[in-house]
Amino acid sequence: MDISDNRKINSPLTLQNRDKPHHCSQCGKGLSSSSNLGHHMKTHTGERPYQCSLCEKSFLHKYELKNHLRIHTGEKPFKCIQCDKAFSQNYELKRHTREHTGEYPYHCPQCSQGFIFKSSLISHTRTHTGEKPFVCSQCGKGFSSSSNLGHHNITHTGHKPYQCSHCDKAYLHNYELKNHLSKHTGEKPYQCNQCVKAFSTENRFKIHLRKH
Fold first, then answer.
1. Residue 170 included in any domain
2. Average pLDDT over every residue of 41-47
3. Residue 133: closest CA among 141, 50, 73
4. How far apart are alpha carbons 108 and 33 in whole angstroms?
5. Containing domain of residue 123, as a range?
6. CA angle, corner 190, sides to 186 and 192, nearest 5?
C-alpha cells in the first residue's frame, strides 16, 4: 500500500463514512446504526408516534413530547442568569441568551443571513438549493425540514392546539400564540442591545437588527 492509499483510508471523509455506515436512501445522511437510520426515516414519512394526552399534537421523539408537556404544565426550569426570564425549553434559553449578546454565530455563505442555531442554517440553505427532502404522505408536498413537515401535517387535521387563555383565539403554532399573547400583556421581550427599542415578536426584532 502506498502513501496516497493510506491517506485516503485515514482521510476525515473516509473515517466519517466508517463511523456512519448506514445511509438514508432519500437524503444521503449517514447514521451510526440501523436503529438511528430507522428513526431518521420517520422524518421523511412524517410519522410521529408520541401523542400528547392533553392535545392532538404528536412528536417523532419521546423527549420532544416531554418538552412539549411543559407548555401545558407551565413548568419553566431553564432560567437566564442575566435577567429574571425563565423558559420551558433549553433552546429557548439559548436563543434568549444570544439576544443579550447579539450573537448569531451561523451565517449563510450565499446571503450572509445569521442564525442562532446550526440546524436553522441548514434548513435555510435549502431555500437557496430548492431541496425539499421531507415529503407529506397525504398530499405529496415537499419541505426543507422535518419540523416544517410536522407543522404541515397538522393542517390536514384542521386542529389548532395552541389556545389563548385570554380570548377564544387558537393557533396552529406555538410562536403564533406567543405573538398573540403580547397583545394582551403588552410584553416586549425582544430587547435590542444596541439601542433602547424593544419588540413583541422575534420577526420584528430580526428586521430591526438588520438596520444596525
1. yes
2. 77
3. 141
4. 30
5. 104-159
6. 125
